[in-house]
């Protein structure tokens, strides 16, 4: 749950590394650092406890001369508290080898005991430092002694020592290493953690995410588990962990670095909220009509016959993506298709019940969510087929799934997911429509109306976003509140969960999301006079029941904010209203979540919280 970056090329090494770390800071930001080989083949190392701005200042005060290769790291702590000593990069005893790492080394205590017994001195509490000392040990075993040996002649030695080091590691890792005696090459390896190579002109890059180097190149190569990369200024060679050379194809990324900048918005989160109409439109484009035919066959690999054959649909995801899966369950059940939705981290026992006829739909923005990947592997072991819904080309999930449906949302930088969630919902609505039509649950004109209604949603999202100032005023009214209750029913119950999660994530307040019918079974006891209750109450079959639940909350003193449409507003009696465009109940989650995102944003803004980088959270959860 960290970001790593590496560069080899011209004399802009530290600039490239710091710029990359800024773009990777969403992956972790409790400490950071960089290392480079200077003009005298000595190791230049700077680390700080804190953000990349502090590292940038430190480097500016003591710049390196002649550096043409280096690595950087921004950390989210797993072993050892945030501190300068625990910050990456980590060095060996000699100060010649440096390593950066994302993941967890499961056998690090065993390795550390062995290295301590051999005389190695450790400076940190991290699992990563064992890699640097282990690499030093391997170099020593290869009898690297003569200081006068040309650095290019040492490259095979460095590679072999690195390969042997990687072979001793158990766990998840994306790692890169530099040796000051061999400045013409940096090495990288991947096992269960994301790592990508960027191919430039007379320069090359490695990083956890393409956004780190996208301003320099769009040509990338995604490493698979069990692969190594030997990165030089003039090219990159790829190997498996056994040392056998392999061929890799590059792909060209279709979005540019300006998409990862704020574009005039105060925060990435607000920018990404406003990009949701485009995200939904991009996800739907060219994939809807004719519903139930073979339109998904070319891109996804799912034919109409496949859609008819699956006995059930099982959604697997974590956090916000799980809420998308819960909406998906309600959608598929609406069409009479058996569907389930599970938190991926709790799926182990249910995996045994997942039969060969099931389609597992794994939802993950990054495609690297460790719990989701583990659950997918368990489902596949039970014989299920897997469809990935993800925003990230080349991610681990895409490579381990049988089918892939990309959401085409572009990069999402804010840690709290917004447009990625809408993209996931759009993909699920798309999938549900094709399933239903292929099975005769959306015959003829019904299928076309479903598609046409779904295609109208991006414009309705834009209309909803026009309510921002109104929603902001409501949010500011409650900015001093420490407790919130979000309630709804049926297909919008998961949106109540998502609304509560959003305000917890970025405003650090206590919030509960509940099915409104369950209030009288306990949650109604926490309502006090003036407590904000956000009730999602669009028109639909559950509206009269929702109106009654709102009355129950008001009778206990709640200050109710009702998310309604023009028709439902006539029935619902609340303290305040947020009125959205009218849409059928089935599609309403694509709109009702947006005011809750905006509400959470403005509460957090009033509380002066760090909205894009909320405390204790990271964007991509790549450890279990």
Walk me through the structure:
This protein has 624 residues and is of the alpha/beta class. The chain has three domains: 3-259, 4-Layer Sandwich (Glutamine Phosphoribosylpyrophosphate, subunit 1, domain 1), CATH 3.60.20.10; 262-466, 3-Layer(aba) Sandwich (Rossmann fold); 468-610, Rossmann fold, CATH 3.40.50.10490. The chain is built from 19 helices and 25 strands. The model has no long low-confidence stretch (mean pLDDT 91).
The multimeric state of the shown protein is single chain
Strand content: 15-25%
User: In the CATH hierarchy, what is the class of the largest domain?
Assistant: Alpha Beta
Largest sheet descriptor = 8 strands, antiparallel
Q: What is the gyration radius calculated from CA atoms?
A: 26 Å
Strands in their spatial order, largest beta sheet: 3-2-4-1-10-9-11-15
The number of E-state strands comes to 25
CATH names the topology of the largest domain as: Glutamine Phosphoribosylpyrophosphate, subunit 1, domain 1
What is the mean predicted local confidence, pLDDT? 91
CATH architecture of the largest domain: 4-Layer Sandwich
**Intertermini distance:** 10 Å
The helix fraction, in percent, is 25-40%
Relevant CATH superfamily of the largest domain: Aminohydrolase, N-terminal nucleophile (Ntn) domain
- Which blocks of ≥5 consecutive residues have pLDDT under 50? none
Tally of contiguous helical segments: 19
Q: What structural class is derived from the secondary structure elements?
A: alpha/beta
Using the alpha-carbon principal axes, give the shape. Answer: globular
